[in-house]
# Entry
Amino acid sequence: MKVSLSWIGEFVDLDGVAPERVAELLSLHTAEVEGLEWFGEAIADVVVGEVVACGPHPGADKLSLTRVEFGAGEAVPVVCGAPNVRRGLKVAFAPVGSRLPGGIKIKKARLRGETSCGMICSERELELSDEHQGILELDPAAPVGARLVDYLGLLDPVLELDNKSLTHRPDLWGHYGFARELAAILGRELRPLPLAPPWPEADGEGVPIELEDRAGCPLYLGLRIDLDAAPRPSPGWLRRRLLAVGQRPLDDVVDLTNYILLETGQPTHAFDLDRLQGPEIRVRPAAQGELLTTLDGVERQLVAEDLVIADAGRAVALAGVMGGENSEVGPETRRLLLESASFDPVRVRRTAQRHGLRSEASARFEKSLDPALAPEALRRFASLLARVRPEARVLGPPAVAGAAAAPAIRLELEPERAARLLGLPLGREEVAAPLRALGFAVADEGSGPLQVGVPSWRATKDVTLPIDLVEEVGRMAGYHRIRPEALLAPVEPPWTDPVRLLGRRLADRLAGAWQGAETQGYSFLDRRWAERLGLPEESFARLANPVQDRVDLVRRDPVPTLLEQAAGNVRERPRGLLFELAKGYEADRADADGLPVERRWLGAVLWQRPGVRPDGPESAFGAARSLTEDLLRTAVAPAGAEPGHGPSWAHPARALAWRGEPDRLLGWSASLDPRLAGELDLDGFDTAVVLLDLAALAELGAGRLPAFRPPARVPAIKVDVALALPEEVSYAEVEAALRRAGGKLLESLTLFDLFAGGSLPPGQRSLAFHAVLRAPDRTLGEKDERRFLERAAQAAQELGGALRA
Amino acid sequence: MRDQLERLRREGLAALAGAEDEAALRREEVRLLGRQGELTALLKQVGALPAAERPEAGRLANAVKAELAAALDERRRALAAARLERDLSGAGFDPTLPGPPPPAGTLHPITRVQRRLEDLFTAMGFVVADGPEVELEENNFDALNIPADHPAREAQDTIWVRSERGVCMRTHTSPVQVRALRRFGVPLRVVAPGRVFRQETQDASHDHTFHQMEGLVVDRGVGVGHMLHAMNTLLAGVFGRDLETRLRPGFFPFVEPGFELDARCPFCSDGCRVCKGSTWVELMPGGLVHPNVLRACGVDPEEYSGYAFGLGLSRLAMLCYGIDDIRWLLGGDLRFLEQFPA
# Structure
């Protein structure tokens, strides 16, 4: 919202306070000022000139050749195309070198062979109005050479307020509210709003008003006015006020309603009284499907929750939002019905939203305006009308239907408590004074709480509790006076969340040892994922109003987004590891609050170009396996893997389920299902996924520490052993057989080579191991090695193969 | 024999002195003094000499051997000294050649900022609390003194979850205030980082999913000064130095009075893009916990008071690292993620 300081200056003296300072004071005490601009600055170069000679242009019928004096040396030749230019006229003159709105720079020019040194301006060229039929004619007494902005009083500092910082303050949606704030901040007097003299006697006529929906409209006033003549342009001062705050002037009737709105915050609406059927006013809910063409020319289909102003026959306005075309003020208008009312804020907001029609009026009504403003606005209108159009007549007092008032709120405020909460050393009077300055009624008996009456303009929703008064006291005293103060609290370690801490350790491990990149993905999934994962949509929490159509599932775990992100990266990075600590929600179960059950996951995806084998140490599957083992070791969670079915994203034959003791599922590591890989454009990559249940892991590892075993003092012997076996024999079977062969002496067994083909017969493969043998009490010798190799050979035979030489 | 030895001596000494490097010297050593070397060969011939000549020849051979060994030793030292000198001179060493590719491994920028704050507040005795992202309307709005007809609840601001009771994607981390107060009771010091959701069209500075951190302290006698202290400490922790700050009025239904905290722009002294030329950056909303919120959480507002503040973690991460577009944060692009080493 724009606020003109010259306008505010009508109600509070701002002399000696620079506009920059006003902006800062409002920001620090009231609401956020986003900017300060000077209205009129764009035409600051324009001066008052006098046309001292005027004759026809020798080369063009419609142009005149003039000489203009503007207080700087001799008169200069100027070519002018306006029909109203004439000798002796005082004009707005833009000399050579000056600038006009829109960045136009005036240069010396030749027009049809004649030199022109400057430009005589129309109102449109000065952006004072749309008038461009002729040049602006100034008063004959205008001083030649003076800056136009000074002569007309155009320069006006205008503040831009952040509307969001005003939403809770219905009193700040007009200039008078800001004047009240500034008067309190500066400790200066607030002048009353000039209101009309008492209403004239009733004239026996009137417009009956019926309120059929008291909740939607508790108070409605209608004032009849005889304009005596058609609407016409407003005087310059009024137009400039509106222009300064970004409102386009139209005619005096519309301009005055806008002026009232911008000054008091109360919207009013002028109907052409002679176009109202009856004439009468009925405020009623719209009929479902009822049509109304609003002033913006749009035909709107209404619903029953909309409130309309109707006459005897039809709706004539959308209450609190916008008037209707059928009763619009126009050139034929001679008599007005001026509406000023109180509407239900929520109804107005909903209607404005429903019809995509947020107007200046609806923006204010939805803030819960003080109902006392409704009659006041009519009196202010009448007072301005007398100034703008003295021949107009107010026809009797306004017709009034209903009644409304802000609640009368009385609060008790303990000054000591206010001071303590604010952290400011304030005495009783320092608490009471700013409240009084803001219009609160404060009674102080010298001890005990202050008795505070809330003024109507703050009582509609803003100030209802003693704590609200603390805010008023604090912001007036100045928040900049508050000093930081360390909290005194017992020294004790705070509770810590074991799942969060474990997540941290595992992330460090993945980013450190595994060189992974931690990522974060969006929580929302495309509906297609339900099908991809083979899960019913109901098992996901589903959005009622998703940001993006069909992206309405809340993810159950991070796997889908990890896969999508991997697919997005493969072009630039043919190999990678992404991981995420994420929450997931399962809607097929409910927690104690009835919410979908929350799970906390660690997910990782690894991808690379396919190698020789899809399994084993070089594969993504193998890496996922080792990574999982490592994370479980970091979590000190004793667990093992068993081949089995993973979740539906997992390859049906290439998945490991990880289980802790006692039997508890901790998660999975698996190759990606090739069909899913194809859908995600991940085919061509060897991709594996790890998904671990962080809460289960934290629980399993709780209180456990790595167990130390003293290293042996006796040397070990190292034996390499290679077995040629049928391909169907799994590594696990071979390992188990070798471990049996090694017995207690076998300390470790490491696969170091795996191959098929070559000298091996088809259907066979060779597995080669480093074995370390050690006895606790003696040094082993060749005999021990031989015995191990014999037993290994026997084991190989039992598995259908043989020891290789 | 004598001549042969004499020739070996002369020729050997010259060869040793002429050896250009340690490898050549080693070759000469083998040739002259090795087990199959020339001297050994001569020594073997000594046995074949007449007995009278043997002692003389033996002495001479040993003398030649000793002389050659000494010369070898001297040359070896000289070559070693020369090598050390060359080594120390840096010749032949290119320090600009790269090493092996360094290990990758990165943590998300939000994690980095969040951890710094978690550690800071944990050190001050705050609990780091957590709450669900799919939240009850009751906790997200009602308990926070946000009226039933408040515009924030409407579908153009809040993302609602299909449910028989009011359930939404939480629009702020503030419902954790409610959950923490109910779970831990008073006195309480708590921060709650996490993701929040709003009905927003995505652009460079808006996303429908972003991160916040909530702070809440409830105790006897808590006032605005305590809040200011926590906010200042937080900013000093994030930016590594004290920043000048100021409180301005702000409005949020769950606090009263409400504030906006501005800090002197950490990136300039005379106006820049971040502070839009004003030298102040709006960083944190906060305020004293509204009595209605305390009451909704079973805390007596006559006895206890508290402060709460909110912090845009996403925004802070963007400020700290100069990230120009919020959509990088949840986009999963490795070219972005790789820039934040763990």
About this structure: Chain B touches chain A through 82 residues (CB under 8 Å).
